[in-house]
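Starch-binding associating with outer membrane: structure tokens wanted.
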Amino acid sequence: MKHLSTNSLSYLSRWLLCLACSMLFACNKYLDIVPDNVATLDHAFSNRLEAEKYLFTCYAYLPQDDHPDKNPAFSGGDEAWTYWPMTEDFFFLDPYNIARGNQNVAQPYMNYWDGYDGESLWQGIRACNIFLENINNVRDLQPYERDRWTAEATFLKAYFHWYLLRMYGPIPIADKNLPITASPEEVKVFRQPVDTVVNYIAGLIDAVAGNENSALPAKITSTTTELGRITRAAALAIKARVLVTAASPLFNGNNDFAGMKNKNGQPLFNPQYDATKWEKARVACKQAIDVAQAAGSKLYYFNPAVGTVDPATKVEMNIRNAVCEKWNSELIWGQTSGGTPAYWLQTYACPQLDPNVFNLNLKGKLAPPLKIAELFYTRNGVPVEEDRTWNYAARYQLRTATAKDTGIQEGYRTIGLHFEREPRFYADMAFDGSTWFMKNGNYNIQSKLEQHSGKKQSRLYSVTGYYTKKIVNWNLVYNNTSLEVEAYPWPIMRLGDLYLLYAEASNETGKPADALFYLNQLRARAGLASVEFSWSTYSTKPTKYSTQEGLREIIRQERTIEMAFEGSRFWDLRRWKTAPQVLNQPVFGWDILQSTYEDYNRRVFLYSPRFVAPRDYFWPIKENNIQINPNLVQNTGW
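Answer:
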């Protein structure tokens, strides 16, 4: 594995200019649609087979959110850290530079506007438009197929706009490809106001999924050939996510960007708070839940053979396999791009488990900082700093585990923070002295200096002393020379995520009972009592859940825990506008260079990240794009 540089050319500039050129000589080659590289639209839509290839080309532009170096939400924030500098074991250094506060306007990191990993989302939008413009020319296509494929391409166009909106804020809308007769002034497009873009995205999704006559399938039935393609539930779930984001503080009632305007004076952000945005989001979330459940979606529960695992392990696997079990009942939309989805993510996350086996392919470097470990609840289902029965003051003091202590090796010494925590803590994270259940056995993590899971060389170790267990499939097996990783579709959306979005929207619209109902379903799956019981019984703030502000705080922490290491926190901190407070906190870990209990379990400072608000809420547009198209205004702070 080596450093692969990002595409240095500006795709949007090329896109804008190439739209004024003949379609015969497109700016970028088609993928898998034309034999012998003869790029003609006539051939691409000459028959059903070629048209279907073009549809799959549209899918191919989906960013690989399952890849640790292609999704900023894995290593671009504070949920995982790694050693630095890295000279191998990476594809791109971009996300790590973002996390370290090194984003820039000359050569932006993870630049999906112009092209990252060789492709641009504008290119994906253009491909969708070409498909939609030409699909009616296919002579041997059945009407129901034409309708479904049209709906899929329309959704993908909406999704690419959404991905850009989340990264860049206000963006141009590319509803149609410009004709070859377009004037230079027509090519120099403007960014559109955020509300306009949101309404456009939601409108596209409504057009193809908004009612029961949708051409999108309720579920995928041809599991050998169609898994990963869009269903109606998937489309509506993404619409729900878009509208929740649009209703959140970053986009709703935010004055930070009030001065951001187009060159013609058009404001790009509406600084006025609009409560109806939350109501629209709530309705969208409920519709998505209802459609998903009608299609058979339900929260995943691990169902092993009778007597093969103890109750605590069963709850742990409820949590882990909700993500890692292929095509499980909770998955609404899973990404299958790249051939072996989540392969690299698992190798980045998994440490050396077996003291008698060493495999160079297990990196174990995707390391959660200490503050992530502190976010999980106690076993009583409340925050560690609120639980009046849990010794918060002694959380860094050593204790010795007994047979009654879940998730810790009997007789091992570790800090109090690791004792009497909720099941999601032990399911999601591993640490020195923890256990790691796999299908072929139970492993002991021992990660002090020179121990099998710890640092032995300049790479292949956790810089914080923690490991991301949750995203490693329990079927992974290895020996000294080979590694078998069971790939699984990366959950772009699962039902638990949708429940949390609905709970958030319900609380913001004055419906706390609805919020608690869905929160409590997730807590029950994780082996916890209800919010009402846990807070009233154990918390120093027993009535916290009874106010909108208190329940908002609970929902946000519940979301952070339930969605940990799934790429949610990075974006949530931004939309909640809590990123400056959270992402400017120093990163701490344990003293992994030590070999004794006392020396290892000392808190060590690793880095002081830098999040500059409001600048870092959005990516910069590469500066030469602004020079080529003076109608594009730069994001605030850049």
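The longest strand covers residues 331-335. Residues 2-38 have pLDDT under 50 and may be disordered.

Cheers.
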